[in-house]
Amino acid sequence: MMKAINLAKLGIYTTTPNPNVGCIIVKNNNIIGKGYHFKTGGQHAEVNALNMAGRQAQNSTVYTTLEPCNYDHLTPSCCHALIKAKIYRIVIANIDPNPRINGKSIKLLAQHGIKTTINILSEQAKRINYGFFKRILFGMPYIQLKLASSIDGKIALCNGLSKWISSLKSRQDVHKLRAQNSAILSTSKTILQDNATLIVNWYNLNTYVQKKYPKKFLRQPIRIILDQHNNISPYHKIISIPEKIILIKNNIHHNNWPAHVTQMMIPIVNGYFNIKILLQKLATKGINNLLVEAGSILSGYLISNNLIDELIIYMSPQILGPSSLNLCNWTKIYNIKDAPQFRYIYIKKIAQDLKIVLKPVNKYFGHKYENN
Asked: What global pTM score does this model have?
């Protein structure tokens, strides 16, 4: 099963909104077929593995990281392919949370005499699909909040200047984070202040990732911008890049937007967008994983409202001083027990910086798979 999980990881840059799935077929203690799901509309992992195994698949054992699909959609049903191949046994890491599948495939396979075993290395397999599981089960994307700060917890000087707090290597690592996510959320203030585009630059991905993720398959995450006061115009740099953008508004702004830009209406509550409604709407659009790259106000709002699943901080060994901008802003806390609590997932040195990944202690989902 671990080999199937490692295969599934090969799809982490391309499968969204589908889950990452890997499959291994074994017969007489030999691997006769292997496959993984590469992208939506492409063959699923089980079919790719069956194609490799050919006729040898009869009476074999299939290891797959997620319950096979049982209906035709963009591709034919994997269950029917497995039944047709006359496999002997199937070992499944996780039951698919999708209500159309959720245990139904296991019953169908059993009805055709195929022995089934479930929940093998379940947590390891789920880790590469936290976004998919959270979206299906809770109607929200898996949210990673990324921040860059000094060792005294500052993200910019008092004049707003923040280029560059983190090292070049850290900034390159952020491109990998972007590539793994379905979408990126930011604010118009951050976009205009940094003149940001929020795109993935393939050349900023490390060699290991580039080998697994050729440039011709580059998928840009959807860029989502909170623009309450209509600060973004068709002439800004971020708009000039023809990749999908969703502008979050509280009223329609009738500008001559290019075709890759859409607007989404979200209500205002207490002077700010209702972020929970926004996240729910994004989930309905198939967004599994959301990376947040924003300033202290949005970051503070997300943390104080317990909306993030992971906090990722690139910490630079410099001190910016008390007049500089804080990592996060929210209302005053007068009791230590009321402060948001996190636990360390891991700490990694990148050039002169530290990459610190933390998880809120009261969140259900664990941390996502970290690729090299």
From this structure: 0.90
